[in-house]
Amino acid sequence: MRAPVAEQTDPAIRGHRRRPFTPPAPLAFGKGGGRRVLGALLALSLAGCSPNKVSLRGGPREYVATDYEDVLERWTRTEDLITLAELDNLLQTTATFESWDFRWAYVVRYVEDYRLTIEQRKKLLEKTLDETKQGHHFFVAITGGERRFNDLTKPDSAWIVRLIDSTGNETAPEEITIIKRPNAIEQTYYPYITVFHQAFRIRFPQVRADGRPTISPNAEWVGLRFAGAQGNSELRWVLDRDLPSERAQRAAAVK
Hints:
26% of the residues lie in helices and 25% in strands. It has helices at 33-47, 68-74, 100-114, 118-130, 184-189, 244-254; strands spanning 53-54, 76-83, 88-97, 136-143, 160-165, 170-171, 175-179, 198-204, 221-228, 231-239.
């Protein structure tokens, strides 16, 4: 999702007393680094035992601006590709799935930051949510290994990225755009970006050439796979498949 611009200007983001999003900590190497790496791997594996579920359903949300950090965290994943032989972090990938739910919270936060009018909010929300009908969008930041080989837009990149799901679907991106110099909005709204990261916007189609959806309605999770000669890593979003109608039926049964 490209950062919206109010009145074609780029004013500084106003300060907020909100709980900050906690960026992924870089893994430490060198003296004693092995123990820290193994400890980090254990922490990551334990954290992965109970992943937060997300929903791809549309519909209105009741977010306020202070909800943005929580929503960002819910839709963001980080994975590290590590070679244990040399304890080298080959690739750290952080990605935010810019879903309908995420975009709603993003717009609410942006509207407060820039003090937009009700009419401006309406137009911005419609435009932003409409982009979810055109594809699946991700904001991605990667670091590790040799920086010159981490440019996903280059033919000699060390990595390719695919949209995957639990049913076996695998889809190549329609568009990858590198963000050479993240602006104030991107640095504030995606606070995990550092000077060591390369940032990208990646769009995948919603429908395959054969007419099937790239994310199956029966999928239990959807993810991004980064693969290359040095290995591969996957970022996964576990999907909440509990449909509203089913919840309503259970609620009615209880009554």
